[in-house]
Please model this.
Amino acid sequence: MYGGRIASTKHGRKNTSVLPSTGSSFCQSGGIPRSSGWRMTMALTRGGVNLGIKNHIPVMVPGGKDELIQAQMHLSDAFVNQVRQIGKMLWNAGLPVLDDLHNTSYEWKIPADIAENDQKLQAYKTAKYIDALKSLKPGITMIIMHCTDPSPVFKYITGSGPVRKGDLLTMINPVFKKALQDQGIILTTWRELKERRDRIH
Model:
């Protein structure tokens, strides 16, 4: 499951939202796969979009300016234009649409000497996420994260335990909460975004 944070902005001021995403909140298959061929990627995205429209479930597709996701994933203008067209389909179907997607948190390499130290891990990841907040533009932006408190057997499932625990430690850090307030970020949810979309005719 994806965990995420949405940053929504009004009148040029950043406003944000906590978005713990589950299978019932949005269609994961609607996202943009990081490593796929052009046709496969668009086929997967359209498949997720069709499911979302059919079941009235918001889909994780950035259909707005897409400045962050294009730069981070080195997407071509042609590809981004196709994604924006999918965003229009979602909007016209009565679903909310992301303006952008921040998708690099898994590329933040955690130094080995802090991976097992919660205090240092929290400080490291908090600083990274605060920098991410500062990069957001007006609109609704989702930041990918996976908050987890790894169990003793988690390491046998995936080596991403420190990354995920760092996400969790950041989200409960008062320093990060203050950064949200300082940046004018308003926390929201997919449900709230859908309710806002429903009020627009």
The beta strands are 3-10, 13-20, 100-102, 140-145. Residues 3-198 form one domain. The chain has one domain: 3-198.
